[in-house]
Amino acid sequence: MEPFTSPATRERLRAVWQESPWLADFVLAALIGVLGAISRPTLSFATPEQIAYSIVVCGCSIALIFRRLCPRLALAVVGVLLVVHLVAVQELTVFAGAVCLVGAYTTQTQLLPPWRWGYVAAIYIGAGVAVVTLPTPTPDADWMIRLVIAAAAAALITVAVLAGIVRRARKARYEDALERAAVLEARQAVERRLAAVEERARIAREMHDVLGHSLNTIAVQAEGARYVIRTDPDRTDQVLADIGRLSRTAVDDVRDLISVLAADDDTTEAPIRPTPTLRDVGALISDLRYTRATIRLHVDGDLSTVPDQVGLAGYRIIQESLTNVLKHADGAAASVRIRVRDRAVELTIVNTSTGELHSTRDDDPHHGIIGMRERARALGGTLTAGPGPDTGGWRVAAHLPWRRA
After folding, report:
1. Total tally of structural domains belonging to the chain
2. Which of 362, 283, 291 is nearest to 333 (CA)?
């Protein structure tokens, strides 16, 4: 049989004790009852004194069972019964002293101010009255005996009060630790949720930027191939070759994104493809040479000085802007201007009007404007998009700064 002193047994008993506080109160009440039974006077119904003492012992034991559920009522009942004990028995007993100490401890662990200190004051006053009315066997030493008993009673009550304060403080620290742990867990859950939302938004933005441009370019070139298939076979062959190349590129991009999502740990290596930068804008515009859009590129500055992160953001902004031109202003002339400044790059994408109303709106979340703004904001830059006052078409302007190492 496993001894009660083993750590495992103590942990199990502590767990039972914490989960069933009423069990502790029941055990305490039983011990108080046993102490009252073995103290003087004995439990009996032979004399009025013994009857009163028996009622006090039973009443105090029952009241202490409810010291957690109804602390004020339980302590009030105990106080009344101790007064009855003082009047009927007319002597200090071990039982009365033990109940008084349990009451003092309970005031600090179960009551709130001002009840806590009011009950403590009543306990001190009751103990003082009991000492004053105590009969002494030696009248000559009456004051000295009373003084020693009063000091001992006050010391014991103070110890019980301090024990209750310590217990209350430990319980408060434990509850505070549980609360902080719960708050930390909730904060971590929110952070994980926000990280997941941010990651999904990033993936959605990448899917939109990567696939949106390729698929729209394929659609526009396929439409153009229908009109030139009989009149210009050479051009049709080149258009179909571009469609095939863009389709394969789109498939490879999707496969790379899926590979990144499937890489659930650091040991899984996802395929790494070169990320596009502003130096690849010329190739991007070249892919659109067989569409009805006429696109001109103007570069001012050295693109090799632009950091890759800024170059990727600028490339995606230009890519999304040209995709919107093909979708909503097919046949319009467009101009892309890239200005490389000191620690910043400025992009301007402008297209002329086709005579049709633009369906792209600044507050429309389905055309990538929000995604472009987020890319610029992530770098500490700005992006504006709206109707161009000079061309009657649409104008996108972005300022993308960076910091020197």
Report:
1. 2
2. 291
